[in-house]
Each structure stands twice: as C-alpha cells, then as structure tokens.
Task: structure prediction
Amino acid sequence: MKCVAILGGGPAGAFAAERLASAGLKVLLFDEKLAWEKPCGGGLTYKAYSQYPFLIDNATPKRFIRETVLAAQSAGEASLKMEEPLVIYSRFDLNRLLLERAERAGASIEKARVLEMSRSGSGWLLRTSTGKAEADFCIVATGARNPLRSVGTELKPEDAMSALGYYVPGDQDRVDIQFLRHLEGYIWVFPRCGHLSVGICGKGEPAGSLRKRLEQYMTERGISWKGAAFYSHLLPSLDAGSWKRNRVAGEGWMAVGDAAGLVDPITGEGLYYAIRSADLAARALLAEVREVAEKVSQYQRLLRSDFAADLEFGSRLAKRVFLGRFLLGAVTARMVQFTRRSPRFSEIMRDLLAGKQPYQELKRRLLRNLHPSLYDIGMSLGFSRLVPRKARA
Result:
C-alpha cells in the first residue's frame, strides 16, 4: 500500500492523515470546506486529552471549564465541580490545528469535494470537483451527511439526532445542561472564546419543534436570540438495533468518526470517537499483515473492543435515561436531585461527564451505590429514621 485517500478533513480525517503520513505513506486528503464551525463542536473531555496530550498542550485559544450545572423541570439545579476540566475550542480553531499537524506530517491537502469513488483494479479511482485521483485505500471521514452512499454507515431516521442553536454574546465560567420533559436530548449553554453557544439536541422530534423549545428556554433565561448567528447540524445517534449492522468498513475502505456513526448516544460526544477511530484505522492499516482484508477486519475488531461495544450498550440506555421514570419521577429529575444531595452519586456523574465511566459498568456501579446514595439523600433531608439501617453501613 503506497497511497491512501482520506475523504473529509474534519477531526477524524485530519488525524488519520497525520498518523498515516507520519508513518511514510502518501496521503491525499480531500475536503470541500476544510476548517469550519459546527454546533457545540470543540468540547473535549478528559478521556480525549489524557490519551492525546497535544489536544491540551498547544497555543490554540481554548477555555477550561471546571463546573457543570445540571437542571431538570421540577427538580431544580445541581452543580458538579469537575476535577478534570472540559476543554472547549472553537471548532474552526481545533480543526485548523489538526489539519496543520497533518500537513506538517507530509499529507497533501486539497480543497475539493469527492463526487464519486469507484474500484480500479485493487484500488480506487476518485472523481473530485477539481479532477481525478487514484489511491490504494480510502478512509471515509465525510461526516454524518455522507454523500457517498456505498461506503460508511447508513443512517435511518431513527439513527440521527438534530443539533441546532445560536452563538450569542456573553461569558460564564460553567456549562449548563437543561433536561426537558418528553425529549430524548437536552439544552446546553457552552462558554466559548468570545461568546456563548446555546443549543439543543434531540431525537425523534422535528428541528422546528426543537428550535421553539430552545427559543422559549433562552427567553426565560433572558438570553436574546433575535439577530444571533444560527447553526444546525445532524448527529449520528444509532438506535440499539442499528449497531449490529453498522457499516464501518468494507473492501478497500474504512469509515471513521461521524461517517461511521461513532457518537455517544446519550451525551452526543463525537470528537473523542472521531479522533480515536482515526487512530485505530491508522493502526490497522499500518499493521504488519499483508492482506488488506485482514487490515479491515482488524479495524472492526479494534473498534469493537475499544469503545463501539460500550456505545452500543449506551444506546440501549438512552431512552430510559431521557424518557424513563424512577421513584415516581422522571429519571432526569432524579439524576439532578441525587447529584445535588449525594456525594457518591455526584462522583458517578462527574466520571460520566469526563468520559471515565463506561456504560457497560454503570448499572453495577449504580446498584453498588444505591443504598449509600439514598442514605446521603435521607441524611441531607434530615430523615435519618426513614433510611434503612442496612444503607447506613
């Protein structure tokens, strides 16, 4: 394998380009936009920058946020002090950082749209908006709105989440997360460099309805949206049954990031999985096996064992988290109340937001901490006699 074409220059494509070019392969990266803004894009959790320290050790402007406030209707608010900060970039700046690293590593970057890809012998013939190119292998990093129907994940309506919002003047030192009734999603307020990103993501609800919900919230908070810059985006949010048939690789190609549907179905986090899947794809391509088919199979195995199985498990929990009920109330309301009153439960929520708590181990940890958490809550309310004696141990 001598030449790899990367279709898409977002974080996943740019990072794959850097990894492969650094290893000595000829890398051609095509993207019609290159660095661009994206709703809420730019938030990196501890899980991301602990594995890839360059994401925090650089001169690119960024915000370090150490407080997240959770809120739900009828449940008030709960503040979480984060031990490891959330690092928030402008998506444009972060994307440019990754593209510059790829270019320094030796990747050839062309501002062009890939219109068609077809097999040519054992390789590929690409038709772009500026001409034609040939490659031995393709990395598909075209995002959720992938125009190349024969490669990458096939998103159905139940596998997508709408994200939209406004960039407004303002500043604050915390992230706000607001849960709403009957919505599989949430509203956010993210402080970025020079402005706030106020947005909403939701599944199973039209974008127009989501926008009305968001504007009502902003009006109630005294945040003006009239005249503010508006943005919208489609996020993969695979249904539980879709993970089994998710098309992440095939003959002569691998998909990474949103193009492979690799987004957290509960938090909506995608940047870590974009970068991580690009790293795993590069690792599989550079593996010391001769057969390309084995490299493809190795990528699928690496994805599954590294994080895809956990995201699949999370997809089974998503509806219960946002729409379920527990102790005669909404799960989201109980989450906020437990977070506010139980240090043990607060620690679980902190780890979830930092990306340190796998979904596959969450149930076991919640059950292990249920009685102690109820004890914390009872004591905080002054109801020590109502808390089971066993829970006080």
User: Anything to note?
Assistant: The CA atoms of residues 164 and 208 lie 10 Å apart. DSSP finds nine helices and 19 strands in the chain. The longest helix spans residues 292-323. The longest strand covers residues 76-88.
